[in-house]
Fold this protein.
Amino acid sequence: MNRRAASGPAARRGALACLAAFAALACAPPQDLLVASAVSLREPMVEIAARFVDLEPGIPLTLTFGASSVIAAQIRAGAPVDVFVSADDRIVDRLVADGLVADADRYPLARNRLVVIAGAGLMPPPQRAEDLLDPRVRRVAIAAEAVPAGRYARAWLRRRGLFEALHLRLIATEHARATVAAVDAGHAEVAIVYATDAHLARSARVAFPVPDAEQPRIVYTAARLRAARRPERAARLLRFLRGDEAARVLSAAGFAGPTG
Amino acid sequence: VSVETILEITALTLRVAAVATLAVLPPALALAYLLARVSFPGKALVQAVVGLPMVLPPVAVGLALLLLLGPRGPLSGLWSALSVDVAFTWWAAAIAAAVVGFPLVVRSCEQAFAGVDVRYEQVARSLGHGRARTFLRVTLPLAHRGVLYGALLGFTRALGEFGATAVVAGILPGRTETLSLGIYARIRLGDDDAALALCAASFALALASMLLAEGWLRRGAR
């Protein structure tokens, strides 16, 4: 009886403590501007965001990186993204067509190129596209089909007529950076990646660039979302992204200008 | 990664798991008590449905939640009326963790309640306690070990939740990036050192909660 009499109020106290804890934990974090970007722009975007916040203090920026196709799918599913930088302008075209981005709120930002990288263990490294058929190349890493980097790489392999032959050796990765990581980690001997990502590899080296005449058109596009929670701040960031300072950061990271 | 980032991610993980556990407890207790005490037609079906989130692939649960909570889902009118976002916020992460952990809590509590002799409740009722009072003052205290254990199971499941969370909350640093999502994102980036650092934080968190729970249960057993 004693025990029961004691645990009654204790249970109520416990319930009250739980409620208080719940209320304290449930307070939403402060608002920020959510910038979702193609993962291949990771380092320059971090740099550009830092410079932007230095120049125009205010609402903080949260950066998230991933495959542009995945980010676009999340935006369609309701992710509260304010600014989106895609590695493929066609992904933004579709967002415009679906009314999620106003046509006036998108700008080409930079261009990129494809190269073939090879792991340090593959000696001599391949010199041209046909060398990828070498039996020592057991696995070729490229990004998944829906991912821009994967689409570009597939387009090039098809153009060279190598896609069918290499088909069974392809391993599909989640995004551009994971493709580089796959070679660094030894999961693949060779990968087709962005020139800008190839420099960031730990052990893999550029084997050869995709020839100029065969380069796919790779145009990065920045856009403000119609549903942006902070439209003013988003517009300012977009303006900064198109400015000279951002262009210098992108160029230092190996990206070409948006036109030409 | 900086220590600051690790602490931030750990704090978010704890918050998501704590909110999920606290939110799940009241309905789980009610349902568990019902299942332990009342027999009704279709009870087996209810039990099976309650267990579903535990056996379904977590990504499938995540997709169902995304369709339910997203801007085109049936609740979208409610969200815009309240002008809140749920999908891709830490609320979504907490909801995912709660849904996936719910069956664990219910199962454990149901067994705990079933272990409480009905006669104690009958005595309390005969002495003039109402149903709610009897539950709070007799059944719950007698079953508290199983209930705590269930809450702990739900909490630890929430700490590690990945599949459903990744789909419905995305991996947004500072917003929805919990330890398991952060580890995954860094593995994909080839940043194994950062992934390992987050694994270490995960390990510390898991060990701490298990030790805490052991101590708690032992103290309760006295």
Observations:
- Chain B has eleven helices and no strands.
- The longest helix of chain B spans residues 3-37.
- The mean pLDDT of chain B is 91.
